[in-house]
Amino acid sequence: MKNKIAPNPNNPFPIKGVDSLSYVKPTIKNPNVIVGDFTYIADSDFESHISHHYEFNNDKLIIGKFCQIAAGVEFVMNGANHQMNAPSTFPFYIFEGWEMSAPPLCELPLKGDTIIGNDVWIGQNATILPGVRIGDGAIIGANAVVASDIAPYSIAVGNPARVIKKRFDEELTMLLLALKWWDKSIAEIQNLIPLLTCSNLTKVKKELKKMIEAKADK
Known about the structure:
This protein is of the alpha/beta class.
């Protein structure tokens, strides 16, 4: 039997003796990168997977709790986008010697913050482009290039990534979104693990209904 050690979201290396997988939140230094508890990456340096994240754009990368990020995943931020409403796309203003001030942000094709929900699995070598939103419980296939929003509990693959199927029927999806298990206490989640890992979806649906109805009656 394993020793009883409480899960600690502030421990960057939650598997003893393994430094090739880390919880992301305790490693973050950039205030424009916001990551929830227990989200992990198959690496020890999450911020090396974020590119073109320039302070002057003020865009944020926001990732929820309990996400699983495989090796080689890259988050491309708005600094990768060039001005496209003028004859040249060359960014003279970022290089020494060229006489050009940075254009106002309204002149740049900024896509806004990149937002990843909770319990999202992002497969190996996937690329997440600026401004996309990936919903809770979604799965992103290996080598996918995500250029548009992905709905909760959907499976998306390819370049550009397209939804190929929903993970569950609409009723179970709505129950899971209502449950928001990732926001519960560690003790509550411990009790939910048998249900969260149960492949009998009829049973899961039935139990979730009971739980949500009981909560509504309080």
